[in-house]
Amino acid sequence: MRHVYECPMRWADMDLQGHVNNVVYVDYLQEARVDMLRVHARTHDQESGGLAEALVVVRHEVHYKAPLTYDFRPVSIECWVTEIRAASFTMAYEVFREEAAHQSGQPGGRRVYLRATTVLTPFVFEAERPRRVSDGERATLAAYLEDAPEWADPLRLTWESRRDPVGHYPLHVRFSDVDVYGHVNNVTYFEYFMEARILFTARLWKGLGEDGPPVQMVTARADVDYKLPILFRGEPYDAWCWLTHVGTRSMVIASEILDGDRLLARARVVMVFVDPATGRAEAPPAEVRERLLAAPGL
């Protein structure tokens, strides 16, 4: 069984291109997950309602499939469970709209904007420790259990941390980033990595564009691993970015957030260069590619 959530859209969800920002999609997933676990799962088992609030995200794998523009209609999100373990479970999502056939002859059907998976673990926040999935919770989750989809493939990369000033970003936590348990919300990590990534790429091709960035990019894939909670404080954390791969029409940026030597989170993001007029993938200008290939440590 799959749960379907009709997610309202907000005008503020849009980026400069008029598309839903890549970070906001993860917020949509959270809304759908909470709706399934707090509202619908609770009707089957009262204790299962606590899963919505007493969970931490271990990992997100997000596949961006097509740009989503603003509409007064909600966007549909299907979510289901793909695996239940002793102390964690995995959910999958598909963000879509069912489109009617167009008068021009364009066929209708489901248009998918995003697919994702999330690994979650029940958590005792008073003791700051994970716990096992209870029998009642397991029974409730099992009602939504299906096989993992074919597209749920981890982006496996060799991890070798790199520290260079061009990739450093002092990360300041805002008070509004913190949830009721005093932890930075899992969605906000995507925002932190995006901020660090934008500064990193701006430094890489500084001086190449007079009226803005010399190339337009879109996020095609983002994997985030959560290691330790980020807490609110006055002094900044350290975020680092570096390139791990440069292809003909894409690149992979790895990132970490640290507190001294303690790893708090890491991310791998696939960015695709696109033609701003058509939105199609294209090779970046030669001078941009040369700057990327000359990046420290590549």
UniProtKB/TrEMBL annotation:
Q: State the InterPro entries in the record.
A: 4-hydroxybenzoyl-CoA_TE, HotDog_dom_sf
What SUPFAM superfamilies has UniProt attached to this entry? Answer: Thioesterase/thiol ester dehydrase-isomerase
A GO term, aspect molecular function:
fatty acyl-CoA hydrolase activity
Residue ranges crossing the lipid bilayer per the database entry = none
Domain of life, per UniProt, equals Bacteria
What is the name listed in the Swiss-Prot or TrEMBL entry for this protein?
Acyl-CoA thioesterase
Protein's organism: Nocardioides islandensis
